[in-house]
Automatic annotation (TrEMBL):
Protein name: FAD-dependent oxidoreductase
Taxonomic classification: Bacteria, Bacillati, Actinomycetota, Actinomycetes, Streptosporangiales
Domain of life: Bacteria
Pfam entry (one): NAD_binding_8
InterPro entries for the chain: FAD/NAD-bd_sf
PANTHER family xrefs: DEHYDROGENASE-RELATED, PHYTOENE DEHYDROGENASE
Amino acid sequence: MPADGFDAVVVGSGPNGLSGALTLAAAGRRVLLVEGARRFGGGLRTEELTLPGYAHDVCASVLAIAVASPAFRDLDLKVEFAHPPIPAAHPLDDGPAVLVHRDPARTAAGLGRDGVAWLETVGAAARAGLPLVDTLLAPLGVPRAPVAAARFGASALLPATVFARTVFRTPRARALLAGMAAHSMLDLRAPISAGYGLMLASLAHLAGWPVARGGSQTFADAMVARLRELGGETVSGRWVRDLGELPPARTTLLDVTPRQFLRMAGPRLPAGYRERLTRFRYGPGVFKLDWALSGPVPWRDPAVAGAGTVHLGGTLAEITHSEAEVTAGRHPRRPYVLVVQPCAADPTRAPRGGHTLWAYCHVPNGSGVDMTEAVEAQIERYAPGFRDLVLARSARGPADLERHNPNLVGGDIGGGLASLWQFAARPVLSPRPWRTPLPGVYLCSSSTPPGAGAHGMGGREAARLALRES
Ligand SMILES: Cc1cc2nc3c(=O)[nH]c(=O)nc-3n(C[C@H](O)[C@H](O)[C@H](O)COP(=O)(O)OP(=O)(O)OC[C@H]3O[C@@H](n4cnc5c(N)ncnc54)[C@H](O)[C@@H]3O)c2cc1C
């Protein structure tokens, strides 16, 4: 570890750590970035998890929220975002799959009687554009689009089940909304679950749901390169176990979750704050699968082959049941499965003719159950013959994921439960939740606002606060 001479030290190189480091370096601060893992990037790493030549995004793959984020969209990094022909598909047992196109009108046309309702809700959020995105990604800032945000908020606060049944009349539109909302990892009967679904669906229209050409790692690498251009120093393979190991600096940004911060800070933290952090709740975990395939997935509806993201799990009722089971600490027999087909946008992920496939399902936090069979059965349900294409697979449960990245506590990919309470109190209830009681020390991970996703906003907001205060 370099000894001293830094204005700021950033621990952790996920999208939030990187955006925090870039914000500080761009303001002229001498920055040291310290990463525990061998490679930089946190949730943006890409590895050959199965066979040589098959590049798999270990965590984040679809970077919709990154391309739309005010923390990243103006950086002009050397990274290419590749868009699939169709952002998302939701196959059903009967009839064609529901498709979300970039064009809201084309999407609405596929929703029949619910087309108008789609345009009036998801379409309206997309029409509100980047000012609404900026408002939602900086919920504690001055709203850029207060009217649109108030309108959005009225629906967003609802449980997804209530929103879907009130606004949509057809099973197809209701299922589509459920698949979007289930990204939140919440029970779909819980408040605010509709909001996550509406936001993600509107991003499909506004910004698309792209992947990074070559893998998400290229996005992280481009940010590390920019940081070095700005004079920042970087160290990897160095886990920080105690804050005392860090060189002295005016500012310390920690891209870690509350549980790790409690360990690193030890008795330095006042009892009251420790107590509040101890009450922070983690969400369900995920069981992640990656496959090397000998060809494209044989979807029963061939249109699904063009979709970057595919939501499996059937109807609103089925997905609601799946997510309720997970919330209750059980493993659903037919889980909701999030699938990404990177090759629909980026054929460089596999050798010629080959394909990669990425998927996860939700499981109770810390689960040790192997969900491979249940996930593959859901894919077979909509793509009979899928298993015949499998050349190799990588399966990772919560413990494996937490070994890969200690921020994934119990396999929770969101840095903490995305409940209504923890949307407001993340990780504590405060107008400046990034600030800790330790002078100059800030949390900046997805355990701070606005929460999960590769948007880098926690890092940017923490760094801006630090620039004002230290
Ligand atoms: C399986 C999976 C799929 C996902 N899919 C998507 C997706 O498609 N799109 C999307 O937008 N988001 C997705 N996410 C979520 C996204 O990856 C996270 O929300 C995002 O990476 C959080 O960024 P972060 O900077 O807060 O933390 P992280 O990206 O988790 O980075 C934290 C970094 O800190 C390092 N670190 C932790 N402790 C220490 C320590 N003590 N010393 C040194 N270094 C330390 C870690 O090694 C890590 O590099 C997914 C996550 C997972 C796990």
